[in-house]
Design a protein that fits this description.
It is a single chain. The chain is built from 12 helices and 10 strands. With about 325 residues, the protein is α/β, with parallel strands linked by helices. It folds into 2 domains: about 190 residues, Rossmann fold, CATH 3.40.50.1100; about 100 residues, Rossmann fold, CATH 3.40.50. The strands form 2 sheets. It has a 6-stranded mixed β-sheet with strand order 1-2-10-7-8-9, sandwiched between helices. Helix 3 crosses helix 4 and helix 10 crosses helix 11. The longest helix is centred in the middle third of the chain and has 17 residues. The structure holds 4'-deoxy-4'-aminopyridoxal-5'-phosphate (PMP). 4'-deoxy-4'-aminopyridoxal-5'-phosphate (PMP) binds next to helix 8.
């Protein structure tokens, strides 16, 4: 028998998918870790599970308690599922710039959703800081604190990284991923570098995020902007602190969209915008490294979460981003 134990037992062990059209283009093996196949639909299920389990083990989260988080959506969806499966309540504080699909999903899952104006991290009313304050004022509640809670990157150090290593039989040459909290990138990089320090670990960054300049020059500089949700940062989170990074690659939205549509039309994969950034960066890294290399990235979540946006002509036109 091969039976998974509920939602929790179904998180992780995702397939690694050969992205054929991009392999043909580059002469490299471009492989995508299918995190959209997690039961909550994104890479964030792993972090959500580790954060809740860690709080339980430390005795911080007790039966009937509430999990509070500031999230762009996917972490909230993962947390809401796990809260349902384990009998906790869930309160999500979300910037009002995020897609309607994600807010609707959170409400359907029974989370209390509080949309708040999107203001920079330095503002005390930033959604992340607000969620910490709200949690501290509640009885029997924890703040998931995904950006600085190291249970997040531990999920990827203990699961995603080893899975990629085993699935490629240790032949991986390059690893590239965009970062939101940095949990995925850092956890996988730390694990892979221990296995083989020659594996090139590269941060993919959208325009308007500070990590590209930080890795290139040691200074955070943010220029331009991006329509991609869930990635990019203006600071080095505790999860990103000390993560090995050999290089960084910056990707424009237009290029990420071209890649998202190629994944859809040529590879049959319906993916969100951050996956476009990731695969575009994997292709750029493949071109740098040359044919014959194996490069792994993350397929973060499904395009169905962005149907009203990057798969909607009017929305794209309003952003000046209509693909050819
Ligand atoms: N892609 C999407 C769609 C996300 O929601 C997130 C998380 N916010 C990421 C990528 C990045 O993951 P991480 O937080 O592990 O850096």
């Amino acid at each position: 028998m091969d039976i998974k134990n509920g939602f929790v037992g179904t998180v992780g062990n995702t397939p690694l998918i050969r992205l054929n059209s991009f392999c043909e283009e580059t002469g490299c093996e471009i492989l995508g870790k299918a995190e959209f196949l997690n039961p909550g639909g994104s890479v964030k299920d792993r972090a959500a599970l580790y954060i809740i389990q860690d709080a339980e083990e430390k005795g911080l989260l007790k039966p009937g308690g509430t999990v509070v988080e500031g999230t762009a959506g996917n972490t909230g969806i993962g947390l809401a599922h796990i809260c349902n499966a384990k009998g906790y309540k869930c309160l999500i504080i979300i910037p009002d710039t995020q897609s309607q699909e994600k807010m609707d999903a959170l409400r359907v899952l029974g989370a209390e959703v509080r949309p708040v104006p999107a203001v920079p991290y330095k503002d005390p009313n930033n959604y992340v800081k607000l969620s910490g304050r709200v949690a501290s004022e509640m009885e029997n509640a924890i703040w998931a604190n995904q950006f600085d809670n190291l249970a997040n990157r531990r999920a990827h150090y203990e699961t995603t990284g080893p899975e990629i290593w085993t699935q490629t039989d240790g032949t991986i040459d390059g690893w590239v991923a965009a970062t939101g909290t940095g949990g995925t990138y850092a956890g996988v990089s730390l694990f892979l570098k221990e296995k083989n320090p020659d594996i090139k670990c590269v941060v993919a960054d959208p325009m308007g995020s500070g990590l590209y300049s930080y890795i290139k020059t040691g200074e955070i500089k943010m220029e331009g902007n991006s329509i991609t949700e869930g990635i990019g940062n203006s600071r080095i989170t505790a999860n990103m602190e000390g993560a090995p990074a050999d290089d960084a690659i910056q990707i424009h939205d237009q290029e990420a969209l071209r890649v998202v549509y190629q994944l859809l039309r040529k590879d049959g994969l319906f993916m969100g915008g951050s996956t476009g950034i990731n695969v575009a960066a994997a292709v750029a890294l493949a071109k740098q490294m040359g044919p014959g290399h194996t490069i792994v990235t993350i397929l973060c979540d499904s395009g169905s979460r962005y149907q009203s946006r990057i798969f909607n002509r009017e929305w794209l036109q309003s952003k000046g981003l209509l693909p050819e």
